[in-house]
Amino acid sequence: MTGTVRSSAELDIRRRRALFRSWHRGTREMDLVLGRFADSELARLTPEELDQYEALLEVPDTEFFKWVTGEKAVPSAYDTPLFARIAQGSRAQQD
Question: Which residues of the chain are under the pLDDT cut of 70?
Fold first, then answer.
């Protein structure tokens, strides 16, 4: 997989930026976790969920990956239904 399979043409600038950042994390594992989530869900996120997603994009890859894999507990500020959807999608991809 080389990256996004989604066109950003119909997305507003904020969602375009989030899509790009999702696929350009710094580690391939997180590119796949967040990029795939963004491809499938970004257009449907509510404004509140988009705020939460942008906050998650600020988390360093090493920390985020530990949360997704369950190696480390998710801090309460990030432990949202949105994070649960991301983590669940990541686990489903691994199965």
Answer: 1-9, 91-95
Domain with 76, as residue range(s), is 32-94
Domain presence at residue 51: yes
Average pLDDT, the chain: 89
Helix, strand and coil content of the chain, in percent to the nearest 5, comes to 65, 0, 35
> Is residue 42 a part of any domain in this protein?
yes
What DSSP character marks residue 40? H
Residue 1's nearest CA partner among 36, 52, 46, 51 is: 36
> CA 47 to CA 53: how far, in whole Å?
10
Give the chain's domain count: 1
**What is the CA 40 to chain-centroid distance, rounded?**
10
pTM value is: 0.85
